[in-house]
């Protein structure tokens, strides 16, 4: 896609998420790779439901602003994630259910979401918990950068979810799946849940690998 097409797509996708309640106010930030040297990102403090295509921040791989408004201070961790293979979009929201998960003190960080739906296993897999750092902190970028290309789903402790994808469309779809699965975790908390067995999980993972 051309840069102009990506600008229109970002505005459209972000507006859709905003209108469906995935974020409020100026929360969250999104970026997409334009080419090998430039990235489009949402401007600092911008409401994802009211983005203007021509005002999106165009930055280089070091975060230097090329055109548009000043980018979100969290573009630093986006740039760290772009160092991974096949990472062409990054979505970070403060969506209710995944942010709820990120705030639970005694959550099992080795298995934040125990597998109980096939799509989550195939498309998202393991979620990596990133220790709490203030928004925009360099340590947040360093922590996420270590997992660039190794995971596509993260929870920033006491902060919210981050998803990477091979395209903006893929990343947006995965974020929705992540949020809805987190909601189900809460809705099922007092139920006897049938979790997928190891054999069932292995089958799904192997099936997904054969597609790649």
What does this structure look like?
This protein is α+β, with helices and mostly antiparallel strands and 212 residues long. It is 38% helix and 16% strand. The chain has seven helices and eight strands; from the N terminus they run H-E-E-E-E-H-E-H-H-E-H-E-E-H-H. The chain has helices spanning 3-19, 75-81, 96-102, 118-124, 138-145, 168-187, 198-211, and strands at residues 29-33, 38-41, 57-60, 65-67, 89-92, 128-130, 153-156, 160-165. The chain has an eight-stranded mixed beta sheet, with helices on both faces. Helix 2 (75-81) runs parallel beside helix 5 (138-145) and helix 4 packs across helix 7. The longest helix has 20 residues, at 168-187. The chain starts with a helix and ends with a helix. The mean pLDDT is 95.
Count of separate DSSP helical elements: 7
> Shape, please?
globular
- Helix content range: 25-40%
Q: Which spans have pLDDT < 50 for at least 5 consecutive residues?
A: none
Spatial order of strands in the largest sheet:
4-3-2-1-5-8-7-6
- How many whole angstroms does the radius of gyration measure? 17 Å
Largest sheet: 8 strands, mixed
Q: If you average the pLDDT, what whole number results? A: 95
Structural class: alpha+beta
Strand coverage percent: 15-25%
* End-to-end C-alpha gap: 22 Å
Structure summary, number of beta strands:
8
- What is the H/E string? HEEEEHEHHEHEEHH
Architecture blueprint of SSEs:
Elements: H1 3-19, E1 29-33, E2 38-41, E3 57-60, E4 65-67, H2 75-81, E5 89-92, H3 96-102, H4 118-124, E6 128-130, H5 138-145, E7 153-156, E8 160-165, H6 168-187, H7 198-211
Parallel strand pairs: 6-7
Antiparallel strand pairs: 1-2, 1-5, 2-3, 3-4, 5-8, 7-8
Helix pairs in contact: 2-5, 3-6, 4-6, 4-7
